[in-house]
């Protein structure tokens, strides 16, 4: 595999058929791209060095893919601070750089699509970031609040977890 | 934590097919993360408990139902969908989150703290009640908060097998309800300095939960052992009283053949003295390290807490205690077997004339790790691996029996995918998964046309010692004392093992030390040990040094200090022969010289401390910098060489 191929381009194709060209080096943040390109080179189906290969991403919409590409491009310039648990703070801007904190300031629909896309394209830092962002909707919230945020029907479960609820009442923001 | 997945190269066509499948899976909301579909179990109104040892026709016998009532996704097709969408429990229970699959959901929940999970999530809906109680979530919370410093494990208060209908009509399962949440609650209260003793968590069985993700991880830890899995005996077996050193060396060590020696350890004091109580008392005040392929971090346990953990451990891949420091921490434990071993198995004494335990010449501190105390709950064990550094090994169960499956060097077991250069291995991280998925393929291999490629199997009992020759793949399962799959028969399995170099594998070891430096293990995380780059030359120096010692001692007409001295005059010869062999090539088919890129990449785990030499070798890039612990991400779980 020619690692020096800085001019190589890979074309990511969204669900709607829109093409997002991306330099191979940047696109390799996605393990799906890495695997696909590796296979391509073996079969020599396209230009040399896996150039101009199209990768169909049939369950990623264009608006989502655009964001994913933005993420990869930015990552190549400023890699995201790795997210490690236990978290020391609930302030996203203190866990990752500001650009990334802003990146996930999106609505729920987009957020979930980013989770799915990151999972499908196997981009670990993006998956971590988006899952972390969703988890922020949950942390420190009561069951009622969580239901409201995610539009969950009110169902009673016969068993309450009294112990830990008691312990967390009145406590400072609990972080793990 | 997400279950293991295999990463394989895919053709264009396969990529397209996979796309379609994923699309379909996303629409159907429950992606089956890994294996093919599990057979649907008959759905029932009440949880059916215990099909001990039985295998239903076409189905998988289990010890008890899923504690929260989850069923495989395939069962959804058996549901009457005239009134409601069959998956309505999930739909209504997740709201907007339902566009994510269960693995993604668990990934999100893995970032949530304990009180939010217990106080918020599990009270939201039935589905979130089940998801929020996923055992691995609680395990990871405990390990992150208290893994390194140690934590208390509560006593088990209920008998297993008890299913109870409470006064409010709710059915509660006391069987195998998991333990990590209880561990969390106990330590959480402790950390808040509360004297409150939390009640043990009682799982409630919920109807209408269809999820391969939840079901699979439970199934992998609770399947009943089929009697046929435990009955084959094809490893050669000799009674200890009939085994001479000559026979052992010529017919087994030099031919690299596994051997079960019946009764070889029955004279060891450990066999009589060791039980849970003795171990707890002898090791009081000390902690030991336990790890698991699935856990993000290791954990420190006192023997007392580990024993309690073993009684109630319920994960797919339990924390396995593997400790190389036990002899230094508790010399009594070493005394309980070391002397007797030399008597009962003189071929494994460094006094032996043929040259045994040659790494010992480097000295106790400088040599790679070589002896371990291994403790685990029943049903724990190790999935397929080859022992490190080309060493031979002996393994002696002290409490509890072990089931072994061997594959000859160079013959890859089903379900295992080593990279061509041997650096990395892709395989299921849990034994349960291997047995459930690959058992049939394994049975076929027993009748391989080439006899030399067939697997070998046996059960080692306390009193026996097993010889594990270098290069052989092996899998070990702790099966407790009786064949019944009863989960009441819990408790710790305890064993001892040592890895060694002798004349018979010296040439391969030298070749390995010279050419596979990045695979050398057992030394990187101890600064006093000889590091991989120097091991080859230091080892050779140590070998030559003995000869000089011996010559000097001869001249002065006294005995050489070295316990290896009996090899008198033959050291040079031994080393020369081994060097010549090493230059020619590998003596064992486990190692070949194909140099290709590894296709199997390594997962990045949250907050993993890469001190373990095992994990450390999981590197994609060629960097040999042992301080650099970065790893690239992938969805493939790697379980590199580990010990039993």
TrEMBL record, chain A:
Q: What sequence ranges are listed for the domain SKP1 component POZ?
A: 10-76
Q: In which pathway does it act?
A: Protein modification; protein ubiquitination
**Domain SKP1 component dimerisation positions:** 124-158
Q: Which SMART domains match?
A: Skp1 (SM00512)
Recorded superkingdom: Eukaryota
Keywords carried by this UniProt record: Ubl conjugation pathway
Work out whether the entry's keyword set contains Transferase: no
Query: Into which family does the record put it?
Result: Belongs to the SKP1 family.
Q: Which PANTHER family does its entry note?
A: SKP1
Name of the protein: S-phase kinase-associated protein 1
Q: Which organism is it from?
A: Cyclotella atomus
Automatic annotation (TrEMBL), chain B:
Q: Where is the composition biased (Basic and acidic residues)?
A: 16-26
Which PROSITE patterns does the entry link to? Answer: JMJC (PS51184)
Concerning Pfam families, the annotation shows:
Cupin_8
JmjC domain boundaries: 330-517
**SUPFAM superfamilies found in the cross-reference section:** Clavaminate synthase-like, F-box domain
| Residue segments, region Disordered | 1-46
Q: What is this protein called?
A: JmjC domain-containing protein
InterPro entries found in the cross-reference section? Cupin_8, F-box-like_dom_sf, JmjC_dom, JMJD6_ArgDemeth/LysHydrox
Q: Where is the composition biased (Basic residues)?
A: 1-10
């Amino acid at each position: 595999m020619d690692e020096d191929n800085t001019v190589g381009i890979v074309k990511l194709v969204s669900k709607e058929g829109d093409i997002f060209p991306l330099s191979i080096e940047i696109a390799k943040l996605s393990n799906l791209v890495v695997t696909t390109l590796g296979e391509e080179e073996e079969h020599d189906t396209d230009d040399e060095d896996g150039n101009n290969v199209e990768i169909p991403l049939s369950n990623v919409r264009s608006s989502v893919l655009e964001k994913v590409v933005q993420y990869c491009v930015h990552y190549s310039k400023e890699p995201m601070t790795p997210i490690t648990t236990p978290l020391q703070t609930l302030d996203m801007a203190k866990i990752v750089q500001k650009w990334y904190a802003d990146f996930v300031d999106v609505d729920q629909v987009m957020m979930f699509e980013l989770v799915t896309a990151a999972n499908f394209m196997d981009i670990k830092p993006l998956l971590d970031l988006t899952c972390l962002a969703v988890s922020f909707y949950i942390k420190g919230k009561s069951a009622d609040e969580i239901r409201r945020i995610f539009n969950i029907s009110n169902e009673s479960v016969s068993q309450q977890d009294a112990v830990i609820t008691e312990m967390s009442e009145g406590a400072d923001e609990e972080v793990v | 934590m997400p279950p293991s997945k295999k990463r394989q190269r895919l053709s264009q066509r396969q990529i397209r097919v996979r796309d379609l499948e994923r699309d379909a899976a996303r629409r159907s909301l429950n992606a089956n993360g890994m294996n093919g579909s599990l057979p649907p179990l008959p759905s029932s109104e009440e949880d059916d408990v215990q099909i001990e040892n039985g295998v239903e026709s076409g189905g998988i016998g289990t010890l008890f139902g899923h504690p929260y009532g989850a069923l495989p996704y395939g069962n959804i097709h058996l549901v009457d969908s005239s009134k409601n969408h069959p998956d309505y429990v999930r739909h209504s229970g997740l709201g907007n989150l339902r566009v994510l699959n269960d693995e993604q959901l668990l990934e999100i929940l893995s970032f949530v703290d304990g009180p939010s999970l217990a106080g918020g999530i599990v009270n939201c809906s039935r589905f979130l009640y089940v998801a929020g109680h996923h055992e691995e979530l609680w395990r990871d919370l405990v390990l992150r908060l208290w893994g390194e410093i140690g934590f208390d494990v509560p006593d088990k208060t209920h008998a297993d097998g008890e299913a109870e209908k409470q006064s409010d009509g709710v059915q509660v399962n006391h069987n195998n309800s998991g333990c990590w949440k209880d561990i969390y609650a106990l330590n959480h209260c402790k950390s808040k300095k509360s004297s409150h003793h939390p009640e043990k968590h009682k799982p409630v069985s919920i109807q209408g939960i269809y999820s391969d993700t939840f079901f699979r991880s439970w199934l992998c830890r609770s399947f009943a052992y089929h009697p046929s899995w435990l009955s084959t005996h094809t490893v050669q077996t000799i009674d200890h009283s009939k085994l001479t050193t000559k026979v052992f060396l010529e017919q087994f060590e030099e031919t690299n053949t596994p051997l079960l020696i019946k009764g070889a350890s029955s004279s060891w004091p450990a066999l009589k003295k060791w039980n849970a109580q003795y171990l707890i008392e002898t090791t009081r005040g000390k902690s030991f390290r336990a790890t698991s392929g699935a856990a993000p971090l290791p954990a420190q346990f006192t023997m007392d807490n580990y024993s309690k953990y073993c009684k109630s451990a319920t994960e797919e891949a339990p924390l396995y205690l593997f400790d190389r420091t036990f002899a230094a921490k508790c010399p009594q434990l070493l005394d309980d077997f070391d002397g007797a071993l030399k008597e009962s198995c003189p071929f494994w004494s460094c006094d032996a004339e043929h040259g045994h335990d040659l790494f010992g010449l480097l000295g106790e501190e400088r040599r790679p790790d070589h002896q371990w105390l291994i403790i685990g709950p029943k049903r724990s064990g190790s999935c397929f691996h080859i022992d490190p550094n080309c060493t031979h090994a002996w393994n002696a169960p002290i409490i509890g029996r072990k089931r072994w499956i061997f594959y000859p060097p160079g013959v890859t077991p089903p379900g295992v995918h080593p990279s061509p250069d041997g650096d990395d291995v892709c395989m299921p991280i849990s034994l349960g998964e291997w047995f459930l998925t690959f058992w049939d393929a394994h049975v076929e291999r027993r009748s391989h046309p080439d006899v030399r490629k067939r697997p070998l199997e046996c059960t080692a009992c306390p009193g026996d010692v097993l010889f594990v020759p270098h290069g052989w793949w092996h899998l070990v399962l702790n099966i407790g004392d009786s064949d019944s799959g009863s989960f009441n028969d819990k408790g710790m399995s305890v064993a001892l093992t040592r890895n060694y170099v002798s004349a018979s594998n010296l040439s391969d070891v030298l070749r390995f030390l010279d050419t596979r430096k990045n695979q050398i293990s057992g030394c990187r995380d101890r600064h006093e040990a000889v590091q991989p780059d120097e091991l080859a030359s230091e080892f050779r120096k140590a070998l030559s040094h003995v000869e000089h010692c011996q010559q000097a001692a001869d001249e002065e007409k006294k005995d050489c200090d070295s316990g290896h001295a009996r090899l008198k005059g033959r050291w040079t010869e031994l080393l020369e022969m081994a060097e010549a062999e090493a230059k020619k090539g590998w003596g064992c088919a486990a190692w070949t010289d194909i140099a290709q890129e590894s296709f199997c990449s390594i997962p990045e785990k949250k907050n993993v401390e890469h001190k373990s030499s095992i994990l450390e070798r999981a590197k994609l890039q060629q960097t040999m910098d042992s301080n650099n612990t970065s790893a690239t991400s992938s969805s493939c779980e790697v379980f590199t060489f580990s010990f039993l």
